[in-house]
């Protein structure tokens, strides 16, 4: 892994952000949702850490446009759930999570400031997520916390979600589509990712990846570190890097922001 000070932004045009676990704190919601589903349908009490590990491994090793239907089929068998229809289970899963997603989920500290700063600096901003359009709609139309801080639809120049790709991360399809859309090379892009599958997808696309720390990825920390080009504990670290990087290139007024305004 390289030191962040070695990052050269001179030829970068496209800055790509993952959403869940990267820009927003949402991974824990799905852990708790799956735990509740397993209990509801007779699968017993499974600890959160095991649930996430099993889900991460499944999503890493399986592809396809109906990945979440397939995941529901998988947990029905894995935990011997008393339910036959995976489509109905998926609806239950989404409905259980939606209340939290619409009320409690928020941006990670510093993420909004960083995104806005990169936009002011002239970079093209892309959101690349395996989140569904329905879930994105929850964040952009129902979640008042998030809406008050940033309009995702207006801020990002291009948004690519689950419905737009066939193969999910760690397959590089999502990133290859972005490069094809903008007709740019991998050297002209930079990715922010939190998870092993996300970092691996960026690595497979040949794009430099900045890993932003997320506690739910700790089990794969060694793998993440081996694949990431750069690492930050929080987004303020990258804001400080930008301030130093551009200190002699642009007006410092662009960096006058109040960290306390958005927490």
Low-confidence stretches: 257-263
Give a count of the beta strands, DSSP E runs of length 2 or more: 6
Please tell me how large the radius of gyration is: 19 Å
Distance between the termini: 29 Å
- CATH fold name of the largest domain: Rossmann fold
Q: Can you summarize the main beta sheet?
A: 6 strands, parallel
String of helices and strands: EHHHHHEHHHEHEHEHEH
Query: In the residues, how many domains can be counted?
Result: 2
CATH class assignment of the largest domain? Alpha Beta
Strand arrangement across the biggest beta sheet = 3-2-1-4-5-6
Helix content: 40-55%
* Secondary-structure content class: alpha/beta
Overall average pLDDT: 90
CATH architecture of the largest domain: 3-Layer(aba) Sandwich
Strand content: 5-15%
Q: What overall form do the CA principal axes indicate?
A: globular
Count of alpha/pi helices: 12
Classified in CATH, the superfamily of the largest domain is HAD superfamily/HAD-like
Task: Compile the SSE list and pairings.
Layout: E1 14-17, H1 27-40, H2 48-61, H3 67-78, H4 86-103, H5 111-120, E2 124-128, H6 133-141, H7 144-147, H8 152-155, E3 158-160, H9 173-182, E4 189-193, H10 196-204, E5 208-212, H11 221-227, E6 230-232, H12 235-245
Parallel strand pairs: 1-2, 1-4, 2-3, 4-5, 5-6
Helix pairs in contact: 1-2, 1-4, 3-4, 5-12, 10-11
Question: What would you say this structure looks like, in words?
Answer:
The chain has 263 residues and is of the alpha/beta class. It has two domains: 171 residues, Rossmann fold (3-Layer(aba) Sandwich); 77 residues, no CATH class. The chain contains twelve helices and six strands. Strands 3-2-1-4-5-6 form a six-stranded parallel β-sheet, sandwiched between helices. Helix 10 links the parallel strand 4 and strand 5. Helix 1 crosses helix 4 and helix 5 runs parallel beside helix 12. The longest helix is centred in the middle third of the chain and has 18 residues. It is globular and about 65 Å long. It starts with 13 loop residues before the first strand and ends in an 18-residue tail after the last helix. The C terminus is likely disordered.
């Amino acid at each position: 892994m390289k030191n962040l000070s070695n990052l050269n932004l001179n030829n970068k045009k496209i800055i790509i952000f993952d959403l869940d676990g990267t820009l927003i704190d949402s991974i824990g919601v799905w852990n708790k949702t799956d735990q509740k589903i397993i209990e509801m349908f007779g699968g017993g009490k499974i600890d959160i850490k095991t649930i996430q590990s099993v889900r991460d491994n499944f999503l890493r090793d399986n592809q396809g446009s109906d990945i979440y239907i397939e995941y529901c089929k998988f947990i029905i068998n894995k935990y011997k759930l008393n339910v036959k229809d995976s489509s109905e289970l998926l609806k239950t899963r989404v409905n259980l999570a939606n209340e939290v997603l619409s009320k409690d989920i928020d941006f990670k500290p510093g993420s909004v400031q960083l995104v806005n700063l990169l936009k002011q600096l002239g970079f093209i901003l892309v959101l690349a997520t395996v989140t569904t359009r329905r879930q994105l709609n929850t964040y952009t139309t129902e979640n008042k916390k998030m809406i008050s801080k940033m309009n995702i639809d207006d801020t990002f120049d291009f948004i690519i979600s689950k419905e737009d790709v066939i193969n999910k991360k760690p397959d590089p399809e999502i990133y290859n589509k972005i490069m094809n859309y903008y007709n740019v090379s991998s050297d002209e892009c930079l990715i922010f990712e939190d998870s092993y599958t996300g970092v691996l997808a960026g690595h497979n696309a040949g794009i430099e990846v900045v890993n932003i720390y997320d506690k739910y990825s700790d089990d794969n920390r060694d793998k993440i570190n081996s694949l990431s080009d750069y690492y930050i504990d929080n987004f303020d670290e990258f804001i400080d890097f930008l301030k130093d990087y551009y200190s002699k290139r642009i007006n410092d007024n662009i960096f006058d922001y109040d960290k306390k305004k958005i927490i």
